[in-house]
Amino acid sequence: MFQSARDPAKSGSTRVLSLREFVLLIALVMSLGSLSIDNLLPAFGPIQANFAIADPNDLQLLITTYMVPFAILQTVYGPVSDALGRRPTLMIGLTVYLIGGVVAATAASFSMLLIGRAVQGAGLAATRVLTVAIIRDRYEGREMARVMSITLMVFIIVPMLAPASGSLLLLLGTWRMIFATVLGFAVLVAVWFYTRMPETLHPEYRRSFAFGQIASAVRTTISTRVSIGYATGIALMMGCLMAYIGSAQQIFETEAYELGVLFPLVFGCIAAFMGAASFTSARLVRRLGMRRLSHIGICGFTLVAAVQVGVAFIYDGRPPLLLYVAIFAISQFLYSLTVPNFNSIAMAPLAAIAGTASSFIGSYTTFVGALFGLVIGRSFNGTVIPLSLGYLCLGAACLLVVLWTEKGRLSLRSQPEQGAAKRALPVAAE
């Protein structure tokens, strides 16, 4: 069973967590970030009207101002968690997030709303770092990839439902109700985590919060070819996701396809394909391995992106809705086969510095992804061409990075990978 509720080096009571509860709790903590973005998308129009924003592209700042501190603060939470432990560090982050949520919900101007979003991002940076570190504390190799995929499968339910729930809340009240509801959900998740999740940091991996040790851990991460290579691949793929999230409302709800209230349905269908991919990855990763599965994913993603660009140009930037959604859903399916396994491969050699390594990788991938996403999103011109070109360019660049990392060879055959066993203090399989 999931053993110690505390640092194993200390005395005290224990908590018992089943694999099912562990996965669900980690997924809900992860989902706070997605919920804080996707739930807000239907509110772009009301927010634009409320604050008399002339350029609708400026609404993408609601995503960017969240993502930039989300990226930067990850460099802090990882080293802090290596020193203090995962539990207290995550609780600090959630507290900051709640403060930002209050500021955003009560904002009297668009500038104040952006400040609240920035504080929210700064707080939730802890969830990006620590959910990965907690899983890495407990698992290695293909088993880590399997648990990560199962977690993401549960996590994907949130973006499937978030726009629809945001639209429903808009029917019941104003956009401020969206922030208030998410705040309530965050409080429930924080209480559950605090009362049920034990400390997972192994005593032998506890590190002092010293610049020299942090710098050494970062150097180790950067100098590990597999880690920095696959982290760069994640960053490029995240650029695609950020561009999609930033452009989705304009593409589907307003300017390109003008779906209006049907936008959440399309958004949820695409998210469902991502969830199906996470389920598929969890089923196949033990048999095929992380490399083979993710290499199939990135090759397929790049090919589908090429088709996506071709279709976009053939139809002058507005392909038939069902055709474009079908192609896009396939690309998101392949995205979700790729990125979780990239993440597991990047973290595999870094068990002794999991917190700081997860912090650096998370910050690096989020910042680069947000930057690419902003550039592509701001290029929106009323058609799907900028987004499609962005997917192709970033997908091809990711494939080249993987080839560099693997010294020109992709894994076409299943191979044994290091560290397939669970770490000490494992969660019991059910």
UniProtKB/TrEMBL annotation:
<feature type="domain" description="Major facilitator superfamily (MFS) profile">
    <location>
        <begin position="22"/>
        <end position="408"/>
    </location>
</feature>
<feature type="transmembrane region" description="Helical">
    <location>
        <begin position="147"/>
        <end position="171"/>
    </location>
</feature>
<dbReference type="InterPro" id="IPR011701">
    <property type="entry name" value="MFS"/>
</dbReference>
<keyword id="KW-0813">Transport</keyword>
<feature type="transmembrane region" description="Helical">
    <location>
        <begin position="350"/>
        <end position="377"/>
    </location>
</feature>
<feature type="transmembrane region" description="Helical">
    <location>
        <begin position="92"/>
        <end position="112"/>
    </location>
</feature>
<dbReference type="GO" id="GO:0012505">
    <property type="term" value="C:endomembrane system"/>
</dbReference>
<feature type="transmembrane region" description="Helical">
    <location>
        <begin position="321"/>
        <end position="338"/>
    </location>
</feature>
<feature type="transmembrane region" description="Helical">
    <location>
        <begin position="228"/>
        <end position="247"/>
    </location>
</feature>
<protein>
    <submittedName>
        <fullName>DHA1 family bicyclomycin/chloramphenicol resistance-like MFS transporter</fullName>
    </submittedName>
</protein>
<feature type="transmembrane region" description="Helical">
    <location>
        <begin position="21"/>
        <end position="41"/>
    </location>
</feature>
<dbReference type="GO" id="GO:0005886">
    <property type="term" value="C:plasma membrane"/>
</dbReference>
<feature type="transmembrane region" description="Helical">
    <location>
        <begin position="259"/>
        <end position="281"/>
    </location>
</feature>
<feature type="transmembrane region" description="Helical">
    <location>
        <begin position="293"/>
        <end position="315"/>
    </location>
</feature>
<keyword id="KW-0472">Membrane</keyword>
<feature type="transmembrane region" description="Helical">
    <location>
        <begin position="61"/>
        <end position="80"/>
    </location>
</feature>
<dbReference type="Pfam" id="PF07690">
    <property type="entry name" value="MFS_1"/>
</dbReference>
<feature type="transmembrane region" description="Helical">
    <location>
        <begin position="383"/>
        <end position="404"/>
    </location>
</feature>
<feature type="transmembrane region" description="Helical">
    <location>
        <begin position="118"/>
        <end position="135"/>
    </location>
</feature>
<keyword id="KW-1133">Transmembrane helix</keyword>
<feature type="transmembrane region" description="Helical">
    <location>
        <begin position="177"/>
        <end position="195"/>
    </location>
</feature>
<dbReference type="InterPro" id="IPR020846">
    <property type="entry name" value="MFS_dom"/>
</dbReference>
<keyword id="KW-0812">Transmembrane</keyword>
<dbReference type="InterPro" id="IPR036259">
    <property type="entry name" value="MFS_trans_sf"/>
</dbReference>
<dbReference type="GO" id="GO:0022857">
    <property type="term" value="F:transmembrane transporter activity"/>
</dbReference>
